[in-house]
Amino acid sequence: MHASIDDSLRRLGTDHVDLYYVHVDDRATPLEETLEALAEIVRAGKARHIGWSNVRTWRMEHIRALCERHGWPAPVALQQQHSYLCPRTGPDMASVVDHEQLDYLRAHDDLSLVAYSPILRGIYDDAAKRRGHWMMERYAGPDAEARLRVLGEVAAELGVTPNQLVLAWLLHQTSPRAIPLIGPRTLDQYEATLPALACAVPEEHLSRLDAAGA
């Protein structure tokens, strides 16, 4: 980890990063070892804050407890896959926010949710793309169908695309607050997301989106 941060800073041409993630929760390495190394990196000024990604709620609680016990800096960001569609639960869903994790985040407002894959690789705009897409396996079902229908209706009323509306909906979330993390591969994809920043979603439309589902 020490070598990795030094190599990254050299490549980036900077002396620190604002946020340094544990990208995948490593269950084979003692948490104390990882957290102590992260504390040393923060103490050296090479990273201002730490975050964790792809982690279950019970593990995050254990991480926070160890940090409090030892005086180590606790994670300020939880980076998980999160979108408008509600995922099904299951043993392989550690990287996807579920209802339990949302409740945990509401109770700990010092931990921000960074929502990656917020538009699920652009499937909201394209029904054909949704059919057979491997990512839809986590979401497909009557609940998803109902939410997609309402999403399309509200997007048409507001004059935006469903993808843009999902990003705007996430930006309007307050409990917990969500920070959408987009991953455009082209300039066109990037520019297609920008209208979401200016999309003011009225409360009545937010309520319709939130209430949708089977």
Notes on the structure:
The chain is of the alpha/beta class. About 45% of the residues lie in helices and about 15% in strands. The chain is built from nine helices and five strands, in the order H-E-H-E-H-E-H-E-H-H-H-E-H-H. It has helices spanning about 1-10, 30-45, 55-70, 100-105, 125-130, 140-160, 160-170, 185-195, 205-210; strands at about 15-20, 45-55, 75-80, 110-115, 180. Strands 1-2-3-4-5 form a five-stranded parallel sheet. The radius of gyration is 19 Å and the shape is globular. The protein starts with a helix and ends with a helix.
Sheet with most strands: strand arrangement: 1-2-3-4-5
Summarize the main sheet.
5 strands, parallel
Radius of gyration: 19 Å
For the residues shown, what is the average pLDDT?
Answer: 93
The H-and-E topology, N to C, reads as HEHEHEHEHHHEHH
Low-confidence stretches: none
Number of helices: 9
- Oligomer description: single chain
